[in-house]
Amino acid sequence: MDFELSQEQKAMVATVRAVAQDRIKPRAMKFLDGTFPWENLKDLAGIGITGMAVPEEYGGLGLSVLDTALVVEEVAKVCYTTAMALMPQLGVQTRILSQYAPEEMKRRIFDGVVRGEYVLAVCMTEPHAGTDIPNLRTNTEIRGDRAVINGVKTLISKVDEAQLFVVFTRVGKVPGREGIGCVLVDRDTPGMLRTGRYHTMGGEYLFELTFENVEVPLENLVIKEDGLKKLMNAFNTQRCLNPSISLGLAEGAFEEAVKYARDRTAFNRRIGDFQGMRWKLAEMYRDIEVGRSILYRAAASANPYPDPQLAALAKMYCNEMAIRVTSEAIQVHGGYGFTDEFPVSRFYRGARYGTLGGGTTETLKDLVGKKVMADFPADGFLGMGLF
Ligand SMILES: Cc1cc2nc3c(=O)[nH]c(=O)nc-3n(C[C@H](O)[C@H](O)[C@H](O)COP(=O)(O)OP(=O)(O)OC[C@H]3O[C@@H](n4cnc5c(N)ncnc54)[C@H](O)[C@@H]3O)c2cc1C
Q1: Mutation test of ligand 1: which of 96, 131, 364 has the most ligand atoms closer than 8 Å to its C-beta?
Q2: Closest ligand 1 atom, residue 362 Cα
Q3: What SS3 state is found at 164?
Q4: Ligand 1 centre from 131 Cα, in Å?
Q5: Low pLDDT (below 50) residues in the chain
Q6: pLDDT for position 231
Q7: Separation of CA 156 and ligand 1 centre (Å)
Q8: Ligand 1 pocket check: which of 80, 155, 238 to mutate, most ligand atoms within 8 Å of Cβ?
Q9: In terms of domains, do 113 and 48 share one?
Q10: CATH number, domain at 362?
Q11: What angle do CA 8, 22, 76 make, to 5 degrees?
Q12: What was the pLDDT predicted at 204?
């Protein structure tokens, strides 16, 4: 069992850390108003990060899920918005496109993705169906050499910035999970309308999109059936990247808390010298290291996608851990922690997203609980790997 990162991984993390600390950290506050961090994506593209998940034949680096998770963690330590902005390049959209998109489209799209200029939005959630995605209603009809889309999507990220929308849809009104496919829609396609806009506590804007007879070439219908199963495989990658944002936010908040506990005095002592405060720091540190272990294990299981159960455990744990740790970091800062003068409140706002996106905590608990009930061997013991 080897718990060490490779020399290449350590070098990569050090390079990303330098860019994150020197360039991204000083700019982090300004993204709370919904500004998109294009300049940060450019800086990350400059060191190859936006092309990490793109296959080598399309100009990317084709690196592993663990490599991408390490990078996202490093970026989230300083800026939630920038870590979220990396999701399309490193996450489910790129993985789906590299597997299913037509060759010409891949060449066109991935070149821009690698350069940090092309953003991909993913549209799954609908007003009545978020967790209940098997019951989505958006429908695509095949009419000759065209695909025609009708429906409503909501809570969609990066609508202002995206050049391409990866839309999950029913095909030909076929009911159930098997009837779900995936269609690619270029921005500014007639009939794709922004019908709602929401500002989040994390800073970004989310949108409602209405599709009214949106016509695209039939070749854009990249998955015609059983798309949910195909989506779920790729989604286990997202279930490692989403908790790597949580882990990074918890670490960023912890670093700030330690600094503050050393600098701030009360009753003529550093607050970090009070036992109550030392225990708090010890518990935060413990929880971060537990999260790191399960997350790296889940990410390292990828072949090519991570083990679903490990990914679910890692996501559940890291998401909840980050809410606790970032909240405690505010507590360490006292009243100043609640202001914008210190970054800890920003870390907390970002951490609150984790349990909601990419599979809610409740859904993941359900998934793992079902597996326990179905497959845990009657005479089984834990500890020798997964059951
Ligand atoms: C910052 C942010 C960015 C997002 N970006 C995107 C995006 O780009 N594209 C996209 O498609 N979506 C996006 N979403 C939407 C996100 O995927 C959904 O919010 C999520 O899937 C949950 O769906 P919902 O909000 O409809 O909640 P619901 O599904 O209505 O759930 C409400 C509550 O009920 C619980 N619940 C539901 N079913 C069960 C069950 N069976 N057992 C127990 N509890 C249950 C949930 O866990 C939750 O607590 C984003 C959300 C956020 C916050």
Answers
A1: 131
A2: 47
A3: strand
A4: 5
A5: none
A6: 79
A7: 11
A8: 155
A9: yes
A10: 1.20.140.10
A11: 70
A12: 95
Asked if the structure places residue 216 within a domain, the reply is yes
Helix or strand run (H / E) with residue 230: helix 227-263
Q: Which domain holds residue 197?
A: 121-224
169 and 193 assigned to the same domain: yes
pLDDT by residue (tens digit) across 146-188? 999 999 999 999 999 999 999 999 999 999 989 999 999 999 9
Atom of ligand 1 nearest to the CA of 366: 42
Using CB atoms within 10 Å of the CB of residue 373, give its burial: 0 to 12 exposed, 13 to 18 middle, 19+ buried.
Answer: exposed
* C-alpha to C-alpha distance for 237 and 296, rounded to whole angstroms: 12
Cβ-contact 175, 256 below 8 angstroms: no
- What is the number of structural domains in the chain? 3
One domain, residues 356 and 235: yes
Ligand 1 atom at minimal distance to the Cα of residue 202:
1
The size of the chain, in residues, is 387
Residue 158's CATH number: 2.40.110.10
The verdict on 87 and 180 lying in the same domain is no
Residues with CB under 6 A from ligand 1: 122-125, 130-132, 155-157, 200, 202, 206, 353, 356-357, 360, 362-363, 366
CA of 220 to the centre of ligand 1 (A): 26
Rounded Cα distance between 305 and 293, Å, is: 18
Q: Which residue's alpha carbon is at the smallest distance from atom 48 of ligand 1?
A: 360
Residue 325 lies in a domain: yes
Residue pair 186/215 in contact by the 8 Å Cβ criterion: no
Instruction: Kindly state whether residues 67 and 170 are assigned to the same domain.
Output: no
